[in-house]
Amino acid sequence: DESSDKPGGKRRLLIVIAAVILLVVGGIAAAYFTGLMQPIIDLVLGKHQAPEPQQAAISSQKAVFFPLEELVVNLNTGGRKSIYLKIRVSLELSNADDIPRIQSVMPRIMDNFQVYLRELRIEDLKGSVGMYRLREELLARVNAAVAPAKVRDVLFKEMLIQ
User: Fold this and answer.
1) Domain residue limits at 104
2) pLDDT at 1 over 50
3) How far apart are CA 17 and CA 140, in angstroms?
4) 3-class SS at 81?
5) Could you tell me if 66 and 125 lie in one domain?
6) Is the same domain home to 72 and 128?
7) I need a labelling partner for 91 at 20 to 30 A (CA). Which of 5, 24, 55, 138 fits?
């Protein structure tokens, strides 16, 4: 190995090895911080256990549903023919004690929903992706309005586009 006897050859080899180690460590760190390694870590540490059926039934019974008033808004059509959205949702709460808080800020919740829904376009509501985004946006807006109370989910009871 004449190339390894050269001072530049050993230096180049050390740089390549250091770069590979840096890439591997960076990849592991990225996987850890994005949560991709969490199932593996839980499995190794023994934390990953399926909930017992009895516990799952008890936790689902604790949910409280709070229906909201029906909303009818016209969607953003950019000046074309008016398109209306009629929507009825229920809020899933983890604690019945949060109902008075929800009722006390109901005007704020309805205003947040109205303002957001009026800016939607028909394309925003197409497909399951559109429904998912709508659910996530409504959930974020209602949780901002009712804090410190917590809404688990926004459930669609009715949705009609006309």
Assistant:
1) 59-161
2) no
3) 46
4) coil
5) yes
6) yes
7) 55
